[in-house]
Write a structure and sequence with these properties.
alpha/beta; four-stranded parallel beta sheet; globular
Length: about 325
Amino acid sequence: MASTLPVSLEDIRAAARRIGGRVLSTPMVQSASLGELAGVPVHLKLEHHQTTGSFKLRGATNAVLSLSPAGRAHGVVAASTGNHGRALAYAAKAEGAVATICMSRLVPENKVSEIRRLGADVRIIGSSQDEAQQEVDRLVREEGLVMVPPFDDPDVVAGQGTLGLEIIDTVPEAAIVLVPLSGGGLAAGVAAAVKGISPKTKVIGLTMEKGAAMKASLDAGQPVQVEEVASLADSLGGGIGLDNRVTFAMCRELLDEVILLTEAEIAAGMRHAYACERQIVEGAGAVGIAALLAGKIRGGGPIVAILSGANVDMEQHRRVISATQPLYGEEGP
């Protein structure tokens, strides 16, 4: 399996050695409420406790550390829906490099302002991830910046895969791992790590119904473009790139299933995380809980759900928790 894919288990283990001491090994807790609902043990991997509030710091740190000193001196650039940009800004600053982050107008202001706070040069371009990527390509071509992609890069995927190593180290008997799915960097890396050690463990990708680019691409048998729309799970938005080199092939090979979630189900996951697990997570981070609450996960246990990010606008979170009004087409509480 691993020998034919762009990122191997050994690549992930090398990334773990490289980024050790620069990222947190995040907690794993057991959820009594979700375990009772599912009828099997359910564990929550609290990756939203990561230093920059999401798993993205793993991949960004591994990618920056993998660059030559000359590459870092040129400065790094990326398109982002927010969390990768924050992680890359943090990782670059830690190594004395300058980061430029290109984002669309759909990225929430709380994420934009945090990236600026970390000292990155922020460019707001267009209304989609693809338009932001066009600016990245221009900066690489005309100004010599070094691109660190948000997902479709072997070093980024290997860094994200270190999360899978921690999962299997903590819950070696895991039967199912639930992974948020967008461009596939996290899903590909986690699946490569988990299945490299425990081939029988199922890895299920979870994403929103609207604008699910990887799901549409897997269904089509090739990368396709989808319309990017607003969602509670804004971090799962964006395309996978029509010239995808890494994550499409890995997700096609390694994911056992991809499950879609409605806005109402995602909101329910956020509410449950807050009310029952005492965790504040963004919509993308709540999809594992959402899938369990919706009864969309079938099979044995133990189950591990990754809570991938906490970088939610708190006013949006308040509205979701209080359910005062529908959001992005949510049918209501």
